């Protein structure tokens, strides 16, 4: 199965015109069907591909070029940006720190064993052998109960373009998330800003990963074990090396192919909470596949970097906002499974499971 691509340009144009004229975007002709399609895809597949005219392939390439240079630096250089006392929520997370949930969650392991063989994930033997860099995007709250989730950014020496490149790509991807969040809200029969109002001053994280394919490029290597994301929505630019598998709501496993110039959006645990399970957090893994091996060979022939960079951004609900089923979702029979909880407390609980809080360590 190929995921369909949603072109955001019509929504952005119609929404902008509607806002200028003071007209509700819900009433603009042709918009409702597109919004229903977005909400349907998030509900049924937990993922969708989007094309946003504000996020170009050139933007993505510029970001990946810089991150390849960073991850190619020696480990001792990168560890200067490590902040374990902040639960790795800013700066670099070295390989061997993040523990995939499938390694520690017994209930999840039982479900995996019950899956048909062809849809089972690869079970890792230890922590993920990938690096990650955490970069906050957007304004932080002046007062918050969760300071470590809203800390100042870390900038490595020797990268004068770092802040501008990170912020530029990060803000563009957040803009795409906000458009999808508005469309999903309309499609679900909620106010247009039902989700985006809760995202304001959220601890959004541009969190690219770096996986050393020269060292770990054997087929079957698990870079990110089977897991869901704890945030609201996750967005990825196109990686130069394939290897991302996702699971649809029906349990089907598919390898994602992101077309050039497109972005992948996946549902996280926070949107599951807000919709009382109408959307469920999408499961996924990153592994070395036959297609990854082919890409490694081609990159080697062309003398390109053998670091697999994912330009991942985690969009969050604000730390001090309350997570609870919204609007008509509060009447759902499943609503009781999603009791009200402060988002920051929810995040800390999730981090403790995956080794990024209990060991002062992130996901």
TrEMBL record:
One example GO MF annotation: metal ion binding
Lineage top rank: taxon: Eukaryota
The keyword Glycoprotein is annotated on this UniProt entry: no
Keywords recorded for this protein, A-Z: Iron, Metal-binding, Oxidoreductase
Source species: Gossypium anomalum
Protein name, UniProt field: Non-haem dioxygenase N-terminal domain-containing protein
InterPro entries the record matches: IPNS-like_sf (IPR027443)
């Amino acid at each position: 199965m190929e995921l369909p691509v949603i072109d955001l340009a019509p929504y952005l144009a119609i929404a902008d015109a509607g806002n200028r004229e003071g007209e509700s975007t819900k009433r603009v002709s042709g918009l409702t069907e597109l919004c229903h399609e977005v909400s349907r895809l998030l509900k049924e597949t937990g993922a969708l591909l989007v094309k946003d005219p504000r996020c170009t392939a050139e933007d993505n390439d510029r970001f990946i070029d810089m991150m390849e240079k960073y991850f190619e630096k020696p480990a001792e250089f990168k560890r200067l940006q490590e902040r374990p006392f902040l639960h790795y929520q800013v700066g670099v997370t070295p390989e061997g720190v993040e523990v995939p949930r499938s390694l520690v969650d017994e209930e999840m392991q039982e479900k995996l064993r019950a899956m048909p063989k062809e849809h089972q994930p690869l079970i890792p033997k230890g922590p993920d052998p990938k690096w990650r860099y955490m970069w906050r995007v957007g304004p932080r709250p002046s007062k918050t109960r969760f300071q470590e989730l809203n800390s100042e950014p870390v900038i490595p020496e020797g990268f004068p373009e770092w802040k501008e490149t990170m912020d530029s790509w990060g803000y563009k991807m957040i803009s795409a998330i906000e458009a999808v969040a508005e469309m999903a809200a309309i499609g679900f029969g909620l106010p247009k800003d039902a989700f985006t109002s809760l995202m304001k001053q959220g601890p959004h994280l541009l969190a690219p990963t770096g996986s050393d394919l020269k060292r770990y490029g054997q087929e079957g290597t698990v870079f990110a074990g089977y897991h869901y994301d704890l945030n609201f929505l996750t967005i990825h630019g196109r990686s130069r090396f394939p290897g991302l598998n996702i699971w649809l709501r029906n349990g089907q496993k598919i390898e994602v192919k992101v077309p050039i110039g497109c972005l992948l959006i996946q549902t996280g645990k926070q949107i599951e909470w807000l919709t009382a399970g109408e959307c469920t957090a999408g499961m996924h893994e990153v592994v070395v596949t036959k297609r990854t091996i082919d890409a490694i060979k081609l990159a080697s022939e062309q003398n390109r970097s053998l670091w697999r960079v994912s330009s991942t951004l985690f969009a969050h609900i604000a730390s001090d906002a309350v997570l609870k089923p919204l609007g008509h979702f509060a009447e759902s029979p499943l609503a009781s499974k999603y009791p009200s909880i402060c988002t920051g407390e929810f995040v800390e609980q999730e981090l403790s499971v995956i080794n990024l809080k209990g060991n002062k360590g992130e996901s």
